[in-house]
Amino acid sequence: MTDQHRRNHILARALSWFLLALTVLTMMFLLWLDQQGCHVLYDPTFAQPILAFSSLVTILPALAFVALGTLVNVFQPANRIGWLLSLFGYSFLLVTSSKAYGQCGLQGLAPLRGPEYAIWFGNNITAAWIGAFLVLLFVFPNGQFLTRRWRNFCLAGFGLMLVPYLLTLVKPGPMPVDSLGQTTIPNPVGLEMEGATWLVNGGSSLFEVLVFALLIGAVISLVLRWRRSRGEVRQQLKWPALQLGIAAPLFLIVENVGVAAYPAIFDGWFYVFVIEFLFLGMVVSIGLAVFKYRLYDIDIIIRRTLVYAILTGLLALVYFGSVTLLTSTFSRVSGQQSALAIVVSTLLIAALFTPLRKRIQDWIDRRFYRRKYDAQRVLAQFAIVARDETDLDTLTAELVRVVQETMQPEQVSVWLRETKTP
Question: Do residue 57 and residue 184 come from a single domain?
Answer without folding.
Answer: yes
